[in-house]
């Protein structure tokens, strides 16, 4: 057999990177988006939620910042009592509900022992306010939280 | 308001003739069927067979009575009525992907085709060669063009694309027309110039529409938003996120109000306030049938609890007129300034005609005439 059939290094080349027509998103400047400040979140739950949803690291490419933000938000969401979820969701505006949905779906990606149940409750309440549109926006957003 | 079920398959696209007695539609295959209205029924009078792929766009020029069709076979045909037969003329679009949408310009001397080749083909007739010639608008389009609409000045063209942007291009062809006067979108309009590009919304742009004056453009995108931009020194954009599934088609019915429809199977009204540069939801425009509410037996209640974890008695039946997504909306009379009737066709193979006056009385929706 010919010698060049032995090498399979070509299989590791990602040819999509070399495609000239490859779609790249518009590059927005990641302004100082450090995610919510974890220290403040221990007091009043309602305020904690609003603080946690402030400054989402949407434009940032740094995965560490996104991890930190996600962990902070998840901590706030899991420490809510079931009966407090609905008024908390009602206190958010439209963009807040969309952002909350993004964090909820991000939380679904890595389930822990307790997180899924409480996230599902949050999802139900957020869906009641945001409707299918908010879920569609989570799916179509190019800039994830 | 009337509903006629033409087929069991989806209606891919449709177009009306000038006096609205005939409708040309594609029954999700390679053909175009023309139906004529007689009384309350529709009879098929012509079948146009020439395409080798699904027909994705049809437009019927009202004054010159020509039909242009485009399809996934990368071709477009211009059909003229000779006697009692429609004769096709092939138009070479020079694209290597499917054509997705086609629109005659207001003066009917040009038409534009949007395609998956990431470009728009603007075609005009060259008298000397007796042949349709096309010019391409390529930059800065980065994905499939899904929808097109012409500005009333016959030069500007709005295009919605899968690269999440709605843009307004100049499609000025110096061989067939004179230099255009300045508009709200700018004064220098060489061919292919981008007069406006949207920012802010994400999601594929499914439907785009100019208002009657041409100073406003509206688009519906896949992230369940509708947006309106007003031309000026700096274009002012207003968008509205909705709680429904994405909308697929949008049209102005007055200078300030839009009707849009999509995957939720009913048309909705939106109102644009130019003073506040904001849009608001005007109401659902469907007229549902009143279904008899029968009581639930205990057995049904337990079955529901077992199957769906809820004791709601709502059945999973769509109450809207259309039973599947609405893919196209067209104005029947009144134009985009004072629309009196519009028509929707969808994936359920049916066509519904909506009367704006009746809807505004029945549903107490406000349609701002201005």
Structural commentary:
Chain A: It is found in: Cytoplasm, Cytoskeleton. Chain A: This is Actin-related protein 2/3 complex subunit 5. Chain A: Pfam families: P16-Arc. Chain A: One of its GO terms (molecular function) is actin binding. The radius of gyration of chain A is 20 Å and the shape is elongated. In chain A, α1 (45-52) packs antiparallel against α2, α3 (82-90) packs parallel to α5 and α4 (94-109) crosses α5 (115-140). With 145 residues, chain A is mostly helical. The longest helix of chain A has 26 residues, at 115-140. Chain A has helices at 45-52, 63-78, 82-90, 94-109, 115-140. With 370 residues, chain B is mainly beta. Helices cover 5% and strands 46% of the residues of chain B. In chain B, a hairpin with a 7-residue loop joins β26 and β27. Chain B starts with a strand and ends in an 8-residue tail after the last helix.
Give the fraction of residues assigned to helices of chain A: 40-55%
Number of strands of chain A: 0
- Portion of residues in beta strands of chain A equals under 5%
Give the CA-CA distance, first to last residue of chain B. Answer: 24 Å
Tell me, what's the shape of chain A? elongated
CATH fold-type name of the domain at 44-140 in chain A: Serine Threonine Protein Phosphatase 5, Tetratricopeptide repeat
Main β-sheet of chain A, in a few words? none
| Structural Rg of chain B | 21 Å
Q: Give the overall average pLDDT of chain B.
A: 90
Topology:
The complex is a heterodimer of chains A (145) and B (370).
Chain A: H1 45-52, H2 63-78, H3 82-90, H4 94-109, H5 115-140
Helix pairs in contact in A: 1-2, 3-5, 4-5
Chain B: E1 2-5, E2 13-16, E3 22-26, E4 31-38, E5 41-49, E6 55-60, E7 66-71, E8 76-82, E9 85-91, E10 99-104, E11 110-115, E12 120-126, E13 131-137, E14 145-150, E15 156-161, E16 166-170, E17 194-197, E18 205-210, E19 216-221, E20 225-230, E21 236-241, E22 247-252, E23 257-262, E24 268-273, E25 278-284, H1 298-308, E26 326-333, E27 341-346, E28 350-355, H2 356-362
Antiparallel strand pairs in B: 1-28, 2-3, 3-4, 4-5, 6-7, 7-8, 8-9, 10-11, 11-12, 12-13, 14-15, 15-16, 16-17, 18-19, 19-20, 20-21, 22-23, 23-24, 24-25, 26-27, 27-28
């Amino acid at each position: 057999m010919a010698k060049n059939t032995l090498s399979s290094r070509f299989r590791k080349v990602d040819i999509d990177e070399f495609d000239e027509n490859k779609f790249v998103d518009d590059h927005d400047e990641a302004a100082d988006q450090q995610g919510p400040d974890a220290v403040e979140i221990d007091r009043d739950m309602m305020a904690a939620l609003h603080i946690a949803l402030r400054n989402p690291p949407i434009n940032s490419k740094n995965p560490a910042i996104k991890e930190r933000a996600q962990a902070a938000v998840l901590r706030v969401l899991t420490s809510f009592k079931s009966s407090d979820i609905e008024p908390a969701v009602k206190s958010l505006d439209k963009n807040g509900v969309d952002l909350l949905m993004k964090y909820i779906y991000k939380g679904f990606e890595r389930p822990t022992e307790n997180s899924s149940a409480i996230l599902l409750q949050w999802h139900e309440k957020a869906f009641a306010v945001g409707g299918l549109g908010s879920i569609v926006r989570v799916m179509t957003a190019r800039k994830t939280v | 308001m009337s509903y006629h079920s033409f087929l069991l398959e989806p209606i891919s696209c449709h177009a009306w003739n000038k006096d609205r007695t005939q409708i040309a539609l594609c029954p999700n295959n390679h053909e175009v069927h023309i139906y004529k209205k007689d009384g309350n029924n529709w009879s098929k009078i012509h079948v146009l067979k020439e395409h080798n792929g699904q027909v994705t766009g049809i437009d019927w020029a009202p004054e010159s009575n020509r039909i242009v069709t485009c399809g996934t076979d990368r071709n477009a045909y211009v059909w003229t009525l000779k006697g009692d037969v429609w004769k096709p003329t092939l138009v070479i679009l020079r694209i290597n992907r499917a054509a997705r949408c086609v629109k005659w310009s207001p003066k009917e001397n040009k038409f534009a085709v949007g395609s998956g080749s990431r470009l728009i083909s603007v075609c005009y007739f060259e008298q000397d060669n007796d042949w349709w010639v096309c010019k391409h608008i390529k930059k800065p389009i980065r994905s499939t063009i899904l929808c097109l609409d012409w500005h009333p000045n016959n030069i500007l063209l709005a295009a919605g694309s899968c690269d999440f942007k709605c843009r307004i291009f100049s499609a000025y062809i110096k061989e067939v027309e004179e230099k255009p006067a300045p508009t709200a979108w700018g004064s220098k309009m060489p061919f292919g110039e981008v007069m406006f590009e949207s920012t802010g919304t994400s999601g594929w742009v499914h439907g785009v529409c100019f208002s009657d004056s041409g100073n406003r453009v509206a688009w519906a995108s896949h992230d369940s938003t509708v947006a309106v931009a007003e031309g000026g020194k700096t274009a002012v954009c207003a968008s509205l996120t909705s709680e429904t599934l994405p909308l697929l088609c949008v049209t102005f019915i007055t200078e300030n109000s839009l009707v849009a429809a999509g995957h939720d199977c009913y048309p909705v009204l939106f109102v644009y306030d130019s003073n506040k540069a904001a849009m608001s939801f005007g109401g659902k425009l469907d007229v549902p049938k009143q279904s008899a509410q029968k009581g639930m037996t205990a057995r049904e209640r337990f079955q529901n609890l077992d199957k769906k974890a809820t004791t709601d008695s709502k059945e999973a039946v769509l109450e809207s007129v259309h039973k599947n997504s609405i893919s196209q909306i067209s104005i029947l009379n009144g134009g985009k300034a004072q629309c009196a009737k519009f028509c929707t066709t969808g994936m359920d193979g049916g066509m519904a005609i909506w009367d704006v006056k009746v809807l505004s009385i029945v549903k107490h929706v406000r349609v701002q005439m201005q």
